[in-house]
Amino acid sequence: MTPQSDEDEVWRQIVASYNQPDSAEQPWPDSENLSLEEPEPEPTRRVVKASEFEDDEPESEPEQEEDEEGHYVPEPPPPLPKVDLTTKLAWVALFGGPAYLLVAAMSGWDMQGWALFTAVAAFIGGFVALVVRMGDGPPNDSGWDDGAVI
């Protein structure tokens, strides 16, 4: 017999026994068998009387003084950069065009061709303006080396 035919025979046996009920003949590991005759041990209990604690005084921990030395206080964040008028208009166009189309469609307004064209052109124009103004070089204040700073 070839290894392939042995494997095919094993698969045939698996498929044939798929719908058959489980029999008690299947071997189980001894660790899986539970004995109903052995009672579970009861948990042990200990009664503690107050007199046992009177002799032992708890050691008082020294109060920790709150000092400013261990706390990190971050620097205030830098102010937001000033945005010029062109960038503001580009952002308004980028979001304003689709917002107009969404509101008009949800309200059931009759949109003219020029309004659709203007909204789509505003979206595209705002996107292009922001991408062009993005710049692809290092910032001007980075010095001669634009590598990592350790």
Structural commentary:
This protein has 150 residues and is an all-alpha fold. It has a domain at 85-135. It is 43% helix and 0% strand. It is built from four helices and no strands. It has helices spanning 3-16, 50-54, 85-107, 113-134. The chain is extended, with a radius of gyration of 39 Å. The model has no long low-confidence stretch (mean pLDDT 79). The chain crosses the membrane at residues 89-108, 114-132. Residues 42-52 have a biased composition (Basic and acidic residues). Keywords: Membrane, Transmembrane, Transmembrane helix. Residues 17-80 are annotated as: Disordered. Residues 53-69 have a biased composition (Acidic residues).
Largest sheet, in brief, is: none
**Anisotropy-based shape:** extended
Residue-averaged pLDDT? 79
Low-confidence blocks of residues: none
For the structure shown, list the relevant keywords.
150 residues; mainly alpha; 4 helices; 0% strand; transmembrane; membrane
